[in-house]
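Running this now, will post back.
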Amino acid sequence: MILVRHAQAERKARWNREESLRPLSRRGELQAAALVRILAKDDVAQAWSSPTVRCRQTLAPLAAERGLEVRDHPLLAKEARPDSVLPWVLCTHGEVFEALLRVGRESGLVVARAMVTEKGAAWRVIGHQDGSMEMEYVPPGLRLR
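Update: finished.
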């Protein structure tokens, strides 16, 4: 399972339409394209997304490269509760990440120092043969300035 925070979107202050329609910025498009390279070694069989344009656009290049369809799921929406997110999560929002990481740290799954999940970054969930799991931070392919 790989958890991806959506790439950089157009600025909220400049967006006067419905929030769920706010698209990626040019930099965000480049971050989304970089996911193809960053996640090249990962076996991704499904692409699930928050039902927002920016999340769908973040996964679009990876999904196209893998011949996958990006599917929306309401459990990945901005208001989603972390205890209801299913194990095939792929792309969601910063607020959901904060809650997931808090739960992960409390359960011992996440042992990395406290950090913010950057836009376009991911967490790789690694399962071990003994049944234990850990999360590895994957920085974005293109960092914001």
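The first strand starts at residue 2 and ends at 5. More later if anyone needs it.
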